[in-house]
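Incident review: delayed structure delivery

Summary: a single-chain prediction request sat in the queue longer than the usual turnaround. Root cause was a stuck worker, restarted by the on-call engineer. No data loss occurred. The affected request and its eventual output are reproduced below so the record is complete for anyone auditing the incident later.

Affected input:
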Amino acid sequence: MDRARRYKEPLSLVLLNLNDFKKYNKTWGVTQGDRALLATAEVLEDCLRTTDIISRSGGGQFAIILPHTDLIHAKLVCQRISAALEATPIDSPDGGTPPLSASFGTALYETGKSASQLIEEASRVLYFAKMQREEQSSIK
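Output delivered after worker restart:
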């Protein structure tokens, strides 16, 4: 954030939450859940630049810092990650686990915004994305 502020460069934060990860663990087991997390990490490494920062923040949630990235491009990154996750098979002994999907929350750093404000904003967007997904699931 200091660098983005100093050089007036865009910086985006993405929060990624694997959809229904608790249910995934409960249904398929913790070992399979660990495989899903490893597959997610590999997708993130493949989809992101070496300058991007990835952190697992707990459960099925990851935080991604995208330097030199505005919100429009952050959303394109989210779309690329989403497509890659859905196309990634998760190795399992019986081959029966479903593909992964994720919800995303994005926020753009602006001068004067604190790290906690950036996280809070991305968390709020993630919450609404998850709520919208649940509403769409219940309509089908």
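Verification: The radius of gyration is 16 Å.
Action items: add queue-age alerting; document worker restart procedure.
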